[in-house]
């Protein structure tokens, strides 16, 4: 039965048309737009405490402590209903029409995140409290210690996937996965070109946002073309890395990233910035060189990939895990 399904999906033909491109663009936008809102809200969450904690500058130390304790207590109270929501995440997702297997995996992931909610509530309040008083050393030491544990744990436990590509590969739609790749690439290039064009056109006045000194304004104008190139390459790099993760090429992405930045980009940046006395321009320019190399390597990997073979492998992995997932769903019911 499994082989029949694989053959059936292998025979499917997906013809890319302008209408299909528009439909895929709508799907990608539906995913990306909420993520943009989330990013903006998260940024505002960090800005708002800094505004509130201006009490320190006014030497209102008691009020500063009251704000901090109140923020910690409020966030901890909010964590309680969020925890309950995450515990019953599988039933909630199924109620809204999500696939039971996906709902189960999402619930397991959400439950694992619950222990981090309450420490995060304290951290989000204490970090602005320390920054306001310029107590950076404790934050630095804590970050270094945390990072030393975080990196090996990530390598051991991380499980990533690119949303649209992995979904289509899992469904056996190799042509649809290719269309998704093309759509996202076009969207990323268009966005990067628009942003870069706007910055390049404003390069002569952009420096005044930082200083009225002519030296600063001139230096920003000189660095703006490099900034534009960096924006374009970073956009392509982010998209191609997401495609690699969604296709199950995490190991290839890791090797490419290591080679492009740590073997090429960073050594060149160090040499050009310090030995050739190019300073900021040399450092930044050679890091962008590493990004360009990463884009070239990931683009080659993506173009040379056999998408039907990747779709078949994804389907095989799904079939192997379906029996175990069905048993877990029966236990929940």
Automatic annotation (TrEMBL):
GO MF annotations in UniProt: antiporter activity; xenobiotic transmembrane transporter activity
Database matches in InterPro entries: MATE_fam
Pfam families, per the entry: MatE
Keyword Transmembrane helix applies: yes
Transmembrane annotation, as ranges: 31-55, 67-89, 135-158, 178-202, 223-243, 255-275, 287-307
Family: Belongs to the multi antimicrobial extrusion (MATE) (TC 2.A.66.1) family.
Protein name, as recorded: MATE efflux family protein
Species in which this protein is naturally found: Rhododendron simsii
């Amino acid at each position: 039965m499994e082989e029949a399904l694989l053959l059936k999906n292998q025979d499917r033909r997906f013809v890319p048309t302008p209408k299909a491109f528009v439909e895929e663009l709508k799907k990608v936008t539906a995913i990306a737009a909420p993520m943009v809102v989330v990013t903006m809200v998260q940024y505002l969450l960090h800005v708002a405490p800094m505004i509130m904690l201006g009490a320190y500058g006014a030497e209102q130390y008691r009020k500063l402590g009251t704000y901090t304790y109140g923020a910690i207590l409020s966030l901890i109270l909010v964590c309680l209903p969020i925890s309950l929501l995450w515990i019953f995440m599988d039933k909630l997702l199924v109620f809204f029409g999500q696939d039971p297997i996906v709902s189960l995996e999402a619930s397991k992931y959400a439950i694992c995140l619950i222990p981090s909610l309450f420490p995060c509530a304290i951290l989000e309040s204490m970090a602005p409290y320390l920054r306001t008083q310029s107590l950076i050393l404790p934050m630095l030491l804590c970050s270094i210690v945390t990072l030393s544990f975080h990196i090996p744990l990530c390598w051991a436990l991380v499980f990533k996937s690119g949303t649209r590509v992995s979904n289509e590969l899992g469904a056996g739609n190799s042509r649809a996965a290719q269309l998704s790749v093309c759509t996202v690439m076009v969207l990323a290039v268009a966005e990067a070109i628009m942003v870069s064009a706007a910055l390049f056109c404003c390069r002569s006045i952009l420096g005044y946002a930082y200083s009225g000194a002519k030296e600063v304004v001139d230096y920003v104008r000189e660095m703006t073309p490099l900034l534009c190139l960096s924006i374009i390459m970073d956009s392509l790099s982010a998209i191609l890395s997401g495609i690699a993760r969604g296709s199950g090429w995490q190991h290839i992405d890791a090797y490419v990233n290591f080679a492009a930045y740590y073997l090429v980009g960073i050594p060149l940046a160090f040499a050009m910035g310090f030995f050739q006395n190019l300073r900021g321009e040399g450092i930044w320019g050679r890091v962008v060189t590493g990004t360009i190399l990463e884009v070239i390597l990931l683009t080659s990997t993506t173009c040379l990939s056999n998408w039907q073979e990747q779709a078949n492998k994804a389907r095989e992995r799904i079939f192997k895990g379906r029996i175990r997932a069905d048993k877990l769903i029966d236990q929940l019911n």
